[in-house]
Amino acid sequence: MRILITGSNGFVAKNLICELRSKGYENLYLYDLDTEPMLLDEYTKDCEFVFHLAGVNRPKDQEEFMSGNFGFTDTLLASLKRNNNTCPVLITSSIQAELDNPYGRSKKAGEDLLFAYAKETGSSVYVFRLPNVFGKWCRPNYNSAVATFCYNIARDLPITVNDPEVVMSLVYIDDVIQAFLSALKGDVLIENNFCRVSTVHTVKLGRIVELLRQFRESRTTLAVPDMSDSFEKVLYSTYLSYLPEDQFSYPLKMSTDNRGSFTEILRTKERGQFSVNISKAGITKGNHWHHTKCEKFLVVSGKALIQFRKIGTEEVINYHVSGEKLEVVDIPPGYTHNIINEGEGDLVTFMWANEPYNSDRPDTIFEKV
């Protein structure tokens, strides 16, 4: 399919282009401010679908709102009509089209123009009145609060929040792109003539800032965001996309002694704690048991003997494991246990516990196997 995309250097278009190419769409006609104007007529001759994403949202002169959001739409549709091309046209508008301000009036004019074009030509048109769109590659310190907050908080720069109680309506870029791809097949959600994205997040501005600050602090607290919350999940992905490129990595606190080291990697209230344990050759660690806490051990490098003994009994249960055959060993409550490095080099073991370590209630009783 031959697809024309206007505003091809913009945030939404970049995400759309990548997804189209990943799905095998190769004949993409990309049009932006730096494109030779005569190419528009060439592109509109044989394109089979138009994503009209070009627009103006922060001009130097307010008159540019109408020329950019209405004027270029008129130019595009006129070019399609000259070439007798009645292919479907998708346009991105804004919920601000409902407001009586220069930007809103220009977006409303563009919508009306497209609806009139559909009546005149019989073309299928898809008008998406989008709320605030957020996600990777959105330009910070421009017209997106989420992008600006992500960028600044990731760099420990100040942000301004005038009213944390303001409620924002947001759509995530991946959801927008999926809705656009569905429109390619004529499958859209429509309400009152306007197409909509299936998932809209309604969140207070203060909550967004609170989450972003928690994300930054998570490198110290080791806390994992709540991935069961659909907004928190995609906001975290967005935040990470704004990390400075020289700060992708961060150090962990290693508890070391002559036996090796123990390092906590992640912790959550709901899913427990994940750590890595390194033992030197011949070293035994553990020899304790738990009332409620349970664990899973996975040796990823080296050879180990994991021993168990049920409290109040004498029988010792042995499990020989190694990094050559990955297998998880469950550590049930009520069994004292240890792990012995049987190899000649370091023993590396991933360890999961069902709860983060709490020094006030460690639930750890020392007793040799």
Task: Give a concise summary.
The chain has helices at 11-22, 38-46, 63-82, 102-121, 145-154, 173-184, 205-221, 230-240; strands at 3-6, 28-31, 49-52, 89-94, 125-130, 132-134, 167-172, 189-191, 194-196, 201-204, 254-257, 260-268, 272-279, 284-289, 295-301, 303-310, 317-322, 328-331, 335-341, 347-353, 365-366.
Describe what this molecule looks like in 3D.
By secondary structure, this protein is of the alpha+beta class. The protein folds into three domains: 1-130, Rossmann fold, CATH 3.40.50; 133-171 and 199-250, NAD(P)-binding Rossmann-like Domain (Rossmann fold), CATH 3.40.50; 254-366, Jelly Rolls (Sandwich). The protein is 30% helix and 30% strand. The chain has eight helices and 21 strands. α3 (63-82) packs parallel to α4 (102-121) and α7 (205-221) crosses α8. 30% of the residues are buried. Residues 64-68 have low confidence and may be disordered.
